[in-house]
UniProtKB/TrEMBL annotation:
<dbReference type="InterPro" id="IPR039421">
    <property type="entry name" value="Type_1_exporter"/>
</dbReference>
<dbReference type="GO" id="GO:0005886">
    <property type="term" value="C:plasma membrane"/>
</dbReference>
<dbReference type="InterPro" id="IPR003439">
    <property type="entry name" value="ABC_transporter-like_ATP-bd"/>
</dbReference>
<dbReference type="InterPro" id="IPR003593">
    <property type="entry name" value="AAA+_ATPase"/>
</dbReference>
<feature type="transmembrane region" description="Helical">
    <location>
        <begin position="265"/>
        <end position="286"/>
    </location>
</feature>
<keyword id="KW-0547">Nucleotide-binding</keyword>
<comment type="similarity">
    <text>Belongs to the ABC transporter superfamily. Lipid exporter (TC 3.A.1.106) family.</text>
</comment>
<keyword id="KW-1003">Cell membrane</keyword>
<keyword id="KW-0812">Transmembrane</keyword>
<keyword id="KW-0472">Membrane</keyword>
<dbReference type="GO" id="GO:0005524">
    <property type="term" value="F:ATP binding"/>
</dbReference>
<feature type="transmembrane region" description="Helical">
    <location>
        <begin position="29"/>
        <end position="48"/>
    </location>
</feature>
<keyword id="KW-1133">Transmembrane helix</keyword>
<comment type="function">
    <text>ABC transporter involved in fatty acid import. Transmembrane domains (TMD) form a pore in the membrane and the ATP-binding domain (NBD) is responsible for energy generation.</text>
</comment>
<feature type="transmembrane region" description="Helical">
    <location>
        <begin position="158"/>
        <end position="174"/>
    </location>
</feature>
<dbReference type="GO" id="GO:0015421">
    <property type="term" value="F:ABC-type oligopeptide transporter activity"/>
</dbReference>
<feature type="transmembrane region" description="Helical">
    <location>
        <begin position="78"/>
        <end position="104"/>
    </location>
</feature>
């Protein structure tokens, strides 16, 4: 059936992913050694019990056969030793398992920490190109799958390996010929297991890829819930989700179906071995080359062999799933970091602070320029407004100033010094940003305003709120500044959220202020509050304003009109209106028929 159809052969090195995962256990070396030792002790205890049970059986049989009676002293001693070995096995098995779980949890913690630190080092270009849901799946679902798989396999794999070696040794010790006969069918089972492993690899890789796809759809549906509802796209979203979910089900079913074949297959091999043992072992007992206690011990060892072999087969398939997740995680962790930074700090602007764009070229993709030969000089304290149609390069311009992207050629300078000579952190520390899409984290209003201002006091937070006109709104809330909010609750309106982010920027006391569509989605009253707050905030600061509502930037010192990455006009409002060029056309399109036109 198509839903369970074949998948492409793997193109990556899953074994390499597992080897890399194993190398990460080096920091847990002492615990791993402890697991090895404790598992070995527990395994030896289990290996000795069948032999001792066989000896106890021989004591009973020999006593009855000889007519001298059962030697209960020897039988009691053997019984106590057997009970002690069972207890030793239980203690060693528990202790080894606990150490293994601690080691795996430490590895999981390290993987999560590495993933979080990697996010901080990722270039914005990478994040913009990736599906957010898939990235979240890599650092949550894939890491959880790795941890859960290793929790189930780490200690058990050592135990299974020891048991296979030990049981085979005891079987050959009891009867090498019977051991060879009983193992005759094992190669056929191993061959089948190998084929299962080969076929399960692409299925598990596909499964975790499809998990990322499903996470992406869920994330997009959640963040864009209002848009989906407004446009009545619920059915279309559900169709897309069902398709992705169906593919996930098919991949998961195929992988785990193949995995489930391992244990019954090895059970069949074990049963065939019992037939051989019964026939050949019975003949050896009749010929006196093997005792009844010996064949009893041999059968127990044979049963013990079946369990670890089946465990190894099952764990091998489980590790395919962990390897697929490891590939996805390491692919994310191996993504190139942002370019190396310098340590030089950008000093406060003081009396200077002239910003210049000198012949700047930039493109997101080679051969597709977004900004071309841009030249711009902005003196300290100026307000620069950037207008133009969608895709003209307005937001890109400020992204370059913030060094979220690196320019292709030219230079961006502050007081004749290329900003690449300063660290990104120091440049961004001198910059405040207010975006159209507000971002508030899960915390109190006071904590959100104080975000980024590490040394700010509560009085500083209140002063910033008062300066930006949000203080009286906050005090009307039941808990005031201690009101708990996040980016998705309904406690604050869109405009009030923007006022909070403006207060945050005010508290940061930046030299450069960037307003990206900051008042494009608020009501008239709130816009007046925002404009008043911004007027106070812009005093003595260099500000870049990106807006479609031209009424908000009429008092700008410089207005840049961008079209296809080029600055086609530059000047203040009155100059540009008088020239009757691109800005005049944009303005007329917005205000035709109003008293503001002209």
């Amino acid at each position: 059936m198509a839903r369970f159809g074949s998948f492409e052969e793997p193109t990556k090195d899953m074994k390499g992913a597992l080897r890399r995962l194993a190398r990460m256990f080096r920091s847990e070396l002492l615990r791993i050694i402890g697991v090895l030792v404790l598992t070995l002790v527990g395994t030896l205890a289990m290996l000795l019990t069948p032999k001792l049970l066989g000896d106890a059986t021989n004591v009973v049989v020999d006593g009855i056969a000889s007519g001298s009676g059962v030697d209960f002293s020897s039988l009691g001693r053997l019984s106590l030793i057997i009970v002690g070995l069972y207890a030793l096995h239980a203690v060693a098995n528990f202790s080894g398992g606990a150490l293994a779980r601690i080691s795996v949890q430490n590895l999981g913690s390290r993987l999560r920490r590495d993933a979080q630190q990697k996010i901080d080092r990722l270039p914005l270009a990478y994040i913009d190109k990736q599906a957010r849901g898939d990235l979240l799946s890599r650092v949550t679902n894939d890491i959880d799958n790795i941890v859960q798989t290793l929790m189930q396999t780490l200690g058990q794999s050592f135990y299974a390996l020891y048991m296979v070696i030990g049981v085979l040794s005891m079987m050959f010790y009891l009867s090498w010929s019977l051991a060879l006969w009983s193992l005759f069918v094992v190669p056929f089972g191993l061959l089948a297991i190998t084929r299962i492993l080969k076929r399960s690899k692409p299925a598990f890789r596909e499964q975790w890829k499809r998990t990322g796809d499903v996470s992406t759809i869920i994330e997009q549906t959640f963040t864009g819930h209002d848009v989906v509802a407004i446009y009545g796209m619920e059915d279309d979203i559900n169709v897309a989700f069902d398709d992705a979910n169906e593919k996930l089900f098919a991949a998961g079913f195929r992988g785990y179906f193949l995995s489930m074949l391992a244990q019954p297959l090895m059970g069949l091999v074990s049963n065939l071995s019992f037939v051989v043992i019964a026939v050949v072992g019975g003949i050896q007992v009749l010929h006196g080359t093997l005792t009844i206690g010996g064949i009893q011990a041999f059968i127990q060892y044979s049963r013990q062999l079946n369990n670890p072999v089946a465990m190894i087969a099952s764990m091998a398939n489980m590790l395919q799933s962990a390897a697929a997740s490891s590939e996805r995680l390491f692919d994310f962790l191996d993504t190139a970091d942002i370019s190396a930074d310098v340590s030089e700090q950008l000093p406060p602007f003081g009396e200077r602070g002239t910003i210049e764009f000198r012949d700047v070229d930039f493109s997101y993709e080679p051969g597709k320029p977004v900004i071309q030969s841009l030249n711009l000089k902005v003196v300290r304290g100026s307000q620069v407004a950037i207008v133009g149609p969608t895709g003209a390069g307005k937001t890109t311009l400020v992204n370059l100033l913030m060094r979220f992207y690196n320019i292709d050629s030219g230079a961006i300078c502050i007081d004749d010094v290329d900003i690449r000579s300063y660290s990104r952190q120091s440049l961004r520390a001198r910059t405040g940003m207010v975006l159209q899409d507000t971002w508030l984290f899960d915390g109190t209003i006071a904590e959100n305003i104080g975000f980024g201002a590490k040394n700010a006091t509560f009085d500083d937070v209140v002063a910033a709120a008062q300066a930006t006109g949000v203080d009286h709104l906050i005090r009307q809330l039941p808990d005031g500044y201690n009101t708990h909010i996040d980016d998705n609750d309904g406690t604050l309106s869109t405009g009030e959220k923007q006022l909070v982010t403006i207060a945050r920027a005010y508290l940061a006391d930046p030299d450069i202020l960037i307003l990206d569509e900051a008042t494009s989605s608020v009501d008239t009253r709130t816009e007046m509050l925002v404009q008043h707050a911004m007027s106070e905030l812009r005093q003595g600061r260099t500000s870049f304003v990106i807006a479609h509502r031209l009424s908000t930037i009429r008092d700008a010192d410089i207005i840049l009109v961008m079209v296809n990455g080029n600055v086609v006009e530059q000047g203040d409002h009155h100059q540009l209106m008088a020239s009757r060029g691109a800005y005049y056309d944009l303005y007329q399109a917005q205000f035709t028929g109003s008293s503001e036109a002209g």
